[in-house]
Each structure stands twice: as C-alpha cells, then as structure tokens.
Amino acid sequence: MTSNNNKLTVMVTGASGFLGNELVNQLLQEDNIRVVAVTSKPDDIKLKYLSFDLLALYTSNWQETLKEEVDVIVNCAFPRTSQPDELAKGILFTEKLVRYAHKLKIKSLINISSQSVYTQKDKIITNEKALISPETLYGMAKYSCERIVELLCKEYKMNYSNIRLASLTGLNFDVRMTNRFVDAALNGEKITIYGGKQKISYLEVRDTAEALIRMILSEASEWENAYNLGNNEAVTLLELISIVQRESRKYNKKEINVELLEEKNSFNNLIDSNLFYSTFNWRPNFTVEKMIKELCKHKSISG
C-alpha cells in the first residue's frame, strides 16, 4: 500500500545521524519514494537537502504536527553512548515511536538494532539463531528496544523487523578503527595493535542505506522479525593493517611503524547476513580492501 499518488512515503528518524543522513540522501534519489525526516538537529540537514524534494522535516514535536500519510518508518534514532541516562531516553523514544505509529495508522516499522545484542567473543553460530547475550549497556538497551518493538507491533498488528546492524564505516566516520589506522599511516605515526588474530568485519554506510532501501521497497508483510545486516567478508586485525600499509604507501612513502603487543582477547564481531542477502537479493559492494583504498585517497586529498 502506498500513498501520495502511488509514491511510498518513508519517515526516517535520527535523520542527521551517520546512517540516517545517508539513508535520507539515497531515498531522495528514488523517484517512487517521498521522504519525511525527523531529527533533533534540523540545521544539520536543512541546507543539505534544500534542492531535493524533502517532503517534510520535523523535530521533537513531530507526533503532534505530522500531516503526511506515512507508509514505513525507519527508526535510526538512538544515542551512540554508554551513558545510562541517555540510553534510557533512547528506549523511551522507541516505545513512544511505536505507539505514535499505531495512533497514526502507520503499518510498517524497520527498527535499527545492533549486533551488540550478541556476544562479541569468538562464537560458532553467527546467524539470527545465535544466543542473545549483550555484554554492554548499549547492547542491553538495543535488545530492550527490540523487545518493545516486537511486543507492541504484534499487539498493534504492524509489520516490523529489527535489523541487527554490523559495525559501520564510512569516509567521515573517524571514530572507526579503519579511519584511525589510515590517518596514522598517512601521517607517518606509529600504529599499536593488540593481538592481531581477532576477526573483524565492517559494513560501509552507503551499502547499508542501499540494503535498507531494497527492504523498504519489498512486501512488508513478508519480513522476518529480525535480520542480521553486515558484510560476510572478514579479515584479521593483522590483515587489516597490511592493507592499510600497502594502500597508504601510494600516498605516503614513509615506512609505517607497527607495534604488536600481546593480547589474548577472542574478539569476534562477525554476523552471518545470508538471510538478509537471500531474502532481498542484495550483496555489499564494499570489501575491506575497497574501503581502505577509498579512505586513503579521500584523506590524502582532504588533508
């Protein structure tokens, strides 16, 4: 079911965040989609999308002022923090969002959750049947939101899915290890790593938005209640460093000093995303090597 002359109207919460911003950007390129953006920082996106057909932009009072008929909500709004008070606000927002969605007769909700609902230690099962075992306050808060979404959406007979998202990376997401390693390599700084055999995997934010749009355009009544969304490609920490060394040398001829310290940590942030891949006929475009190549080029130009 679509509204507005057969165009699908999609509301994105957290629209000025790392993922929300990219999702809005890509949704606006789709001819058959209209976008409603909800953000606590409207100035961050108002000018950026001035030339696009952004249907509406709302802040915290969207529940009382929403005039558009929305088909799908993608909830990207959640604090990236470990502060208990901020996490509590994120949980409360999720509950209010689902309740208001029901009140406004919105039929479908995609809730962005996190792989942190699983253990981050080495594990055998990494698909959606893996044991739920949050090890951080953030992971526990994300799982709490999943339960809120599941219980309320079932009560309200809303289509829903919790997307357990992998670790994201992107050109300007400098908190991520990939970006920090590339910065250090280009600046000729020492890189210190612990262990080196830990397996890591990243999903590029542009791939993530593309995958979510593929899901948005599908039949919501057929969604599974939870999907892992990540990149099935994995590298060890040492392999990641090797790629950074090789690619950064194209822009910086200095030798990179890598200090390897002992670490027995069995960290493993892998998730099996085959269910999402097969359901929506989608695969990531960015490999780790492609991410690093683009990062090195981008940072060498931007200085």
UniProtKB/TrEMBL annotation:
CDD domains reported in the protein's UniProt record: SDR_e
Name recorded for this polypeptide? NAD-dependent epimerase/dehydratase family protein
Q: Which Pfam families match?
A: Epimerase
Q: Which residues form the NAD-dependent epimerase/dehydratase domain?
A: 10-230
Annotated SUPFAM superfamilies = NAD(P)-binding Rossmann-fold domains
Q: Which family does it belong to?
A: Belongs to the NAD(P)-dependent epimerase/dehydratase family.
What top-level branch of life does the organism fall under? Bacteria
Taxonomic source organism? Ornithinibacillus sp. 4-3
